[in-house]
Amino acid sequence: MSVRIDATDRKILAELQRDGGQSLDEIARQVGSSKTPVWNRIRKLKDAGIIGQQTFLLDAEALGYEACFFVLIRTSEHEAHWQAKFLQALRERPEVQEAHRLAGDIDYILKVRVQNARAYDKFYQALISEVRVHNVTALLSMEELKSTTMLPL
Prior knowledge:
Number of domains: 2
Strand content: 15-25%
CATH architecture of the largest domain: 2-Layer Sandwich
Oligomer: single chain
Radius of gyration: 20 Å
Order of helices and strands: HHHEHEEHE
CATH topology of the largest domain: Alpha-Beta Plaits
CATH superfamily of the largest domain: Lrp/AsnC effector binding domain/regulation of amino acid metabolism (RAM) domain
Number of strands: 4
Distance between the termini: 20 Å
């Protein structure tokens, strides 16, 4: 479904990105509208698939997940069966926050959030016991400089 996005829709989306937990009244006030039109626009944007899952962002470090690894994977396997098995292995591991298939020398990059290096090694050992990979390089993030889920509307 194709939906036309206007300036008011963009303001609503920006408010939802900024704080998805705010009330309809607050969003309406911020965008200069009333509650019912804002609700109708949000429903339209959900129906169109522009607004997806609603969730809350948690502080990983406050919950004990202090280590963030970026895992670079090269494989010599490119068959559909291997890819399906690899994708299933990633989906079954909650430590994997993001996974991307890349162009270039590296085939995949994963963002893996764990408690510490020992927990990463456990993740790594489990992954390579399920799927064969040619080369794995793990890079430990020393400091997160910027992280956002907000799109530039």
